[in-house]
Recover the amino acids of this structure.
C-alpha cells in the first residue's frame, strides 16, 4: 500500500542511516565501547553552555504564549533580525529580517527552497561527491538532479565540467563547503570560477540560476577560512544549520538567508514562507529558535574535531590508506584500495568499524569516515583499521 | 523564478494566515487590545507548568549529546514507548513503540503519511468542511482530493455521500474530530458508519483504504467524550499534535500512531520513517520530544475554552447569528446571513473583527471564529459583533 515512489526511496534508503541503525544493533551485542561507529555526522561534542543557559532563560523569562505559540511561518521577527545582523557583522552582507526564513534544520531549508522553485523536469546541478539526500530532496519536487563527476584527488570542482552541466533548464546549483563527505573547502578562486560560469550560463540562456549554498559546516574549518559564498554570486540562497556549530543536530534548527539582490526576491521569500507551511513544517520550532538567537557567536570547540582528524589521519598513514586531507567539516574521505567501497565497508564491519560507502555520494571507490566521535573511539579503533588494511595486503 | 505549482499555492494561500498577518498589522495601528483577532488556532492558554518543569529537567539532567543529538528518524525509543503506553492506558489499544513515529506536529505527520502512501492520481477523501491545508498536503504528492459536501446544520458526515466518494483509487480518508472548523465531535455511531462504508469499499474494490485520523483537538471536548477512531476501523493511522492539549503550537511536536493491525504495517512504518527523513524533517525536535513524554497526562484547562465558547455563543445569540453548537475544539462556526462568507469577513474587519471565511474549508456561506483567545477579547468584541449584525438588518 505504500507508494511506488516511496518504495524506491526505501529500497535505496540512506546507507548512512542503515549504518547508524546497524551500529545501535552491534552496540547492543558487543557493547558500545567495542563498536567504532563512524557512520553518522552526529556531533560528539556537547552543545556549548550558552545553549543550556539560553534555553533555561527563555523557559523562565519568556511569556509562555510567545515562547511556545505560532509565529509567522518564516519565524520570529526578532530572531530573524538577530540572524541577519549577525551575518552582516561577520560577512559584511546587507541582510535584514525580511531575508531570513527560519527552518527545520538545513534539510528543512533545502526542501523549502526546492519546493519554492522547482517545477517537474527542472534541473538542479550538484558536484560529486555530494550529500546523498540531495537526490531525494530534488526528487520530492520532481526535479532532475544533474551530477558533475568527481574530480580526484583534490575534489575541487572541474569548472569546465560544471559549466557544461548548466542548461536552459537549470534552476539551481547546490554547493556544500566545507564539503560533506570530503572535508574540502572551496576557496575564493573556486567560488569566483563557479560564479563566473553561472553568470555566463544565465546570460547565455536568459535565465536565473540560484546558487543554494548548503553551509552546515561553515564554522568547522582547520587552519583555513571559509569565504562566504553569497559574496561571490548575486543569486545566492544560503542554507544554514546549527546542528554542527552548536551540536544541535536533533533539534532541527537552521535558516535560509536569501541575498537581497536575488532575482525575484519578494516572490522567492513569499514562496519560501508558504512552502514552510504547506510542507507541514509550519515554522521552525519556537523555543530553540529563541535560544539559538542568543548563541549566534557561540561555537563548539573546533579544535576537538581537528585533533580527531589528525589522530585518524595518523592511523590511515600507518595503514597505508589514501585519503583527502580535510580542511573542514568532520569527515575523512578514504580511498578503497581495490576501488570497491561497498566491499570495504562490509570488510570493516567485520572488525566492528562502521564506515559509509561513497557510492551514495556519487563517488564510487571511496568511503566516508565521520570523525565527530570521542578521541577514545578513534584510539580504540586503531587495531581494527590495521586488521582491515591487512585484508588488502594478504 | 518560483515554480508554477508554488505560484498557485501562494495565490490561493491560506486565508487564515493572511488574517493572522493582517491582525498583526492592525494591532500595530490600533493597539492589540482594539483588534479582535479570531483568525488563528493559536492557543491563548499558557502551556501547563509540567512543560516548563520537564524542559528544565531535561536541560539540567539529560546528557547533552542525547538531548540535542540525532536519534532514529522515528524518534527516541523511550519517548515512542511512553507514547504507546499512554495511549494503551487511555484507549485500551495495543500499540508498542514500533507503532509510533514522532513528527513535526500533526501537519508534519500528515505530510509524512501522505508521502508514504500517495502516488500521482491516488485519491484522498475529505469531508467538508475540512482544514483547508489538507488540499495542499495532498497536492504535495500529486494526489487528488475528493471532497464530500457539507451536511448542515449538524455537519455530521452524510454517510451515503461519503460511500459514493470512495473508489478503487481511494488510498486514504482524512477525518478530524473534534472538527476544525465546526467543533463537531464524531460519536460512536458516526465512526461505526464511516468504518462500515470503508470496509464495504475495501471489499468491493479489493483495496486497502487508510483512515488518517487528524486528532489535534482530541482532549478539547465539552460535556461529551471523543471515542478513539482507531478502535472502530483497523486500517487507522492517528495523527496527533501537542499544539492544543499542551499549548505548544509553535514547537511542532506530535506523532503518528499506526494501528498494529494495519495492512502492510511494517512497510508503512518503514516508509513513514524514510519519509520523515527525505522530506527534510529528519526527526521531530529532540528536547521537546523528551519534554512531552513527561507530560502525556497533562493538559491545559479545557474549561477555559468551554467558557469562552459560551460567552461567544451568548453574543451570537444576542446578534441573531446562527451557529453550530460546538462540542469540542475551539472554533465557532457561524452562518453568514446572506450566504457570502468573504463579504462577512470583510465587513467584520471594518469593526476590527478578524474572522476566517469557510470557503477555504470547502464550505461557502459560513465563517470560522477561533475562540482560543482571552475572555477579555471576547467581551470587548461584543460591540463590534453588534455593529456587524446591524449591517445585515439595515
Amino acid at each position: 500500500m505504500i507508494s511506488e515512489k516511496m518504495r524506491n526511496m526505501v529500497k535505496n534508503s540512506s546507507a548512512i542511516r542503515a549504518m547508524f541503525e546497524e551500529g545501535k544493533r552491534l552496540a547492543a551485542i558487543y557493547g558500545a565501547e567495542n563498536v567504532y561507529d563512524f557512520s553518522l555526522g552526529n556531533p560528539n561534542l556537547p552543545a556549548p553552555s550558552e545553549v543550556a543557559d539560553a534555553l533555561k532563560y527563555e523557559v523562565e523569562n519568556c511569556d509562555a504564549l510567545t515562547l511556545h505559540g505560532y509565529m509567522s511561518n518564516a519565524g520570529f521577527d526578532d530572531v530573524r533580525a538577530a540572524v541577519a545582523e549577525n551575518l552582516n557583522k561577520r560577512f559584511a552582507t546587507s541582510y535584514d529580517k525580511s531575508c531570513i526564513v527560519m527552518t527545520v534544520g538545513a534539510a528543512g531549508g533545502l526542501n523549502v527552497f526546492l519546493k519554492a522553485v522547482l517545477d517537474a523536469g527542472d534541473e538542479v546541478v550538484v558536484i560529486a561527491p555530494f550529500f546523498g539526500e540531495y537526490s531525494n530532496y530534488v526528487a520530492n519536487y520532481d526535479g532532475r538532479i544533474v551530477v558533475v563527476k568527481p574530480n580526484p584527488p583534490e575534489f575541487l570542482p572541474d569548472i569546465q565540467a560544471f559549466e557544461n552541466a548548466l542548461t536552459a533548464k537549470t534552476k539551481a546549483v547546490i554547493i556544500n563547503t566545507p564539503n560533506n563527505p570530503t572535508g574540502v573547502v572551496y576557496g575564493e578562486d573556486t567560488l569566483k570560477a563557479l560564479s563566473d560560469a553561472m553568470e555566463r550560463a544565465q546570460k547565455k540562456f536568459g535565465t536565473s540560476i540560484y546558487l543554494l549554498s548548503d553551509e552546515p559546516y561553515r564554522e568547522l574549518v582547520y587552519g583555513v577560512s571559509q569565504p562566504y559564498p553569497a559574496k561571490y554570486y548575486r543569486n545566492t540562497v544560503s542554507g544554514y544549520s546549527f546542528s554542527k556549530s552548536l551540536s544541535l543536530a536533533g533539534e532541527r534548527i537552521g535558516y535560509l538567508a536569501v541575498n537581497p539582490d536575488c532575482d525575484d526576491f519578494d516572490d522567492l521569500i513569499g514562496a519560501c514562507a508558504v512552502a514552510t507551511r504547506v510542507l507541514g513544517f509550519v515554522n521552525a520550532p519556537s523555543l530553540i529558535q529563541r535560544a539559538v538567537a542568543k548563541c549566534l557567536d557561540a561555537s563548539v570547540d573546533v579544535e576537538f574535531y581537528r585533533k580527531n582528524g589528525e589522530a585518524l589521519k595518523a592511523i590511515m598513514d600507518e595503514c597505508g590508506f589514501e585519503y583527502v586531507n580535510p580542511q573542514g567539516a568532520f569527515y575523512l574521505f578514504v580511498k578503497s584500495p581495490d576501488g570497491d567501497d561497498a566491499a570495504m565497508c562490509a570488510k570493516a564491519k567485520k572488525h566492528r568499524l562502521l564506515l559509509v560507502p561513497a557510492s551514495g555520494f556519487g563517488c564510487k571507490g571511496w568511503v566516508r569516515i565521520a570523525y565527530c566521535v570521542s578521541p577514545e573511539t578513534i584510539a580504540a579503533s586503531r587495531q581494527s583499521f590495521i586488521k582491515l588494511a591487512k585484508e588488502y595486503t594478504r
About this structure: Chain A touches chain B through 86 residues (CB under 8 Å).
